[in-house]
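In this section we walk through a basic example: taking a raw amino acid sequence and producing a predicted 3D structure, encoded as discrete structure tokens. The instruction is simple. Fold the sequence below.
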Amino acid sequence: MKLSGQNILVTGATGAIGQAVCHALVADGANVVVHCSRNRDTAETLVKALDGRGWCVSADLSDPAGPQVLWDQALAVAGRLTGLVNNAGIRSEVAVDAPMEEWQQVWAREMQVNFLSAVDLSKLAIQHFRTHGGGRIVNMASRAGQRGYSSSAMAYGASKAALINLTKSIAQSHGHEGVTAVALAPGWVRTEMAEAYIAEHGEAAALVGIPIARMADPQEIGEITAFVFRPSQASLNGAVLDVNGGSYMR
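The resulting token sequence is shown next.
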């Protein structure tokens, strides 16, 4: 039970990756605060499946007030937090030929959910961790944030690139306070987002360029997240861990 005694907030916990992360963290001994936006029933079902090792909290991270609401609720149920997983994310598409108003709306919402909510939660986490013996932040970035992305989904790639830079800045600036940060950068993972892409473009389009010829399973992401939270892995501070099947290598 490598994570015994840890209380970790997981945003976007009702999606495939979020659920896998929660199960992996609990399997290694942690308690988790399960965040949901609209899928309250799914979140409560997940908490029940965690055998009493979790709490369910709701907040809308597309609202700039959402991160503070979420953090306050998480502290209220857990008392103290030792970890944060910024996993909540959306992927929208908008053509460069779209009307400017539509273009700006998509970009604003994508950056708010994928990046700015993580910025605010990270600020709150840093303040909490440095006065309570330290803590760790794991940001769920993406291969798209490393190598660029398709024209219609540039907002997604840009938000994930910003998340990687945020991770490095936290690691460099607050590591001496016992606050460490790591980013994971998955390629395609078998999730609803991936299935929606496949439905539109075909599975071959998603698998092109992946040497192992398959997407990652959510459980793989859960396992590596739990590993990153081990107290023995402090030296991973600032790392960006690629989980993309060899489709992007640095």
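Looking at the output, two observations stand out. The chain has a mean pLDDT of 96. The first helix runs from residue 16 to 27. In the next section we compare this with other chains.
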